[in-house]
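Structure in, sequence out. Go:
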């Protein structure tokens, strides 16, 4: 089964970019109408610029090559194909829950697809952790994948 992530990243980046443009236009209209110097104008400008930076980062990430295929032969990544004989384990890792920013409850970060190759198989990535002395590599955040996490779990279970 083939998975891709560019579509979701492009949609998210496009929505945030549209929001950033709207905020910056509203800030510009405020400056034209009331004149510069109000602290709220600077705060609105900051929000618009931060949103624009986030949107551009999402669009740049969507433009990077990414391929993930899970089938009976193994896992194919954008830069490497690994047979099941070259993989010790593969799992969806759910990072520990963290306190949300309002302090009202627990927030659960997005799950990661983590791959542990057999010793001697090197990947062009920084290890994301170790299990049993073997380095594990985070392949992607699963919520960015199309189809979603349920389909990825089903493909890995086969």
């Amino acid at each position: 089964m083939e998975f891709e992530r560019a579509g979701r990243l492009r949609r998210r980046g496009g929505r945030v970019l549209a929001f950033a443009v709207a905020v910056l236009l509203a800030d510009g209209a405020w400056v034209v109408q009331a004149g510069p110097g109000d602290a709220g104008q600077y705060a609105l400008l900051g929000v618009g610029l931060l949103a624009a930076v986030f949107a551009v980062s999402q669009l740049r990430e969507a433009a990077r090559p990414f391929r993930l295929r899970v089938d009976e032969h193994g896992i194919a990544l954008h830069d490497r194909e690994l047979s099941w004989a070259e993989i010790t384990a593969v799992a969806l890792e759910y990072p520990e829950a963290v306190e949300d920013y309002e302090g009202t409850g627990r927030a659960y970060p997005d799950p990661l697809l983590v791959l542990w190759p057999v010793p001697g198989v090197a990947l062009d990535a920084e290890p994301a952790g170790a299990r049993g002395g073997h380095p594990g590599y985070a392949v992607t955040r699963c919520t960015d994948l199309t189809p979603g996490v349920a389909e990825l779990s089903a493909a890995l279970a086969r």
